[in-house]
Amino acid sequence: MTVRNLTRLIVALLLAAPALALAAEPPALNMANTAWMLTSSVLVLFMTIPGLALFYGGLVRTKNVLSILMQCFAITCMVSVVWVLFAYSLAFSDGGASNAWLGGMGKALMAGIGVNTLKGDIPETVFAMFQMTFAIIAPALVVGAFAERMKFSAMMLFSLFWLLLVYVPVCHWVWGDGWLQKLGVMDFAGGTVVHINAGVAALVAALVLGNRKGFPETAMPPHNLTMTVIGACMLWVGWFGFNAGSALAANGTAGMTMLVTHIGAAAGSLTWMFCEWVRFGKPSVLGIVTGMVAGLGTITPASGFVGPLGALVIGVTAGLVCFFATNFMKRSLRLDDSLDVFPVHGVGGIIGTLLAGVFAATALGGVGFADGVTMGKQVMTQLTGIFATAVWSGAITFVLLKLIDATVGLRVTIEQETEGLDTVLHNETGYNL
């Protein structure tokens, strides 16, 4: 090698050295992403308390309003503690040989997670808090199925074990490097993990507990629709953290996710309103806010993968299908899912998860599929995720409810249900006018 060529080689290596050193550096804290994820965590917590609590609280009768608020608040506290103790570790840490199914205990009590520990380019404490808020709202959603008739003690036991045996495994499968994630299931913000999971559990709970006394012959209208609308507005705003926050960054994906989330909500609301208008002659406030929740739940799994066109179609589909599913359950099946958790969240989650495999196509404005994956193959993968989640949630929920019923009992007595859970279980009333 000549001196000239040797000199060129040395110069090239020196020029490449900074780039090589930079590539070897661990990810650095991104303060913009961290600020967005802190905000998103607050928004998602805001969805449960006060959002969902007020939304559900207004839908029940006066004598049960405090029981709903109490259940949402108690679930928030309990899940927060259990998440830190070991649920986060089981969902998101390495489970070794069983990692396809469940994480390990390596991060129990937040072991190894300090002020400077990162998850990607954000603090792992922020990531854990963000995921905690999802774990909180999932069992809180199920409360709507057995509202006005379950014992508080039974509700606490069910929520605890449902979190550990149903939510945590499915969360790991889809988001914790589990088998559904490796299979390629597209669930950006919780179509399977939250909505199908909670919706199927709600359906099973409604079947196991049976109808409320007098349902469906006795009218049971919401006692305070003003409260419900306020809660619905809080859910809409909080949902931007739920979906756009799932990008885990303040970037273009978060921006598009926020846009399509809003479109899905608006399209679902209008579609439900017009369906009701045509069928019953008048549009209702309850209908338009329920359509909003249906639109939001349905766009959730697809929100990071589709464009505005996909969001519009998904929102309209949600409003239409969830409207008829709700009426079919109550009027034809006469099944008392008190606050319509399955026909709104369960059916919506199924539709959204399935359509994510369609409208993610680049030709339809989406982000596209993985290399070598066709739309047909992706739809089949989505169906696998839907089926696995529904079967696991349904089976474990049924067993849990039966075990709790055999021990502490599930339902209050007919006399207690007539008097109302506020007085019977909490010795308080929601209103003293």
Draw up the topology in text.
Elements (H helix, E strand, L loop, with lengths): L2 H22 L6 H29 L5 H28 L25 E2 L2 E2 H19 L9 H24 L3 H5 L7 H19 L15 H20 L7 H29 L4 H15 L8 H25 L8 H19 L15 H33 L6 H6 L1 H6 L7
Antiparallel strand pairs: 1-2
Helix pairs in contact: 2-3, 2-4, 2-8, 3-4, 3-5, 4-5, 4-7, 5-7, 5-13, 7-12, 7-13, 8-9, 8-10, 9-10, 9-11, 10-11, 10-12, 11-12, 12-13
Alpha-carbon distance between the termini? 97 Å
**How many discrete structural domains?**
1
Secondary-structure-derived class: mainly alpha
Tally of separate helices: 15
Net shape: globular
Backbone CA Rg:
23 Å
CATH architecture classification: Orthogonal Bundle
Query: Which CATH first-tier class would you pick?
Result: Mainly Alpha
Poorly predicted segments = 13-17
Q: How much of the residues is beta strand, in percent?
A: under 5%
Let me know the CATH homologous superfamily.
Answer: Ammonium transporter AmtB like domains
DSSP, total strands? 2
Report the biggest beta sheet as strand number plus sense, adding barrel if it closes.
2 strands, antiparallel
What's the arrangement of strands in the largest beta sheet?
A: 1-2
Order of helices and strands: HHHEEHHHHHHHHHHHH
Keyword list:
1% strand; two-stranded antiparallel sheet; Ammonium transporter fold; 2 strands
Please tell me about this protein's structure:
This protein has 433 residues and is mainly α. It has a single domain (36-93, 119-426), classed as Ammonium transporter fold. It is built from 15 helices and 2 strands. It has helices at 3-24, 31-59, 65-92, 124-142, 152-175, 179-183, 191-209, 225-244, 252-280, 285-299, 308-332, 341-359, 375-407, 414-419, 421-426; strands spanning 118-119, 122-123. Strands 1-2 form a two-stranded antiparallel sheet. A hairpin with a 2-residue loop joins strand 1 (118-119) and strand 2. Helix 9 runs parallel beside helix 11. The longest helix has 33 residues, at 375-407. The chain is globular and about 100 Å long. The N and C termini lie far apart (97 Å).
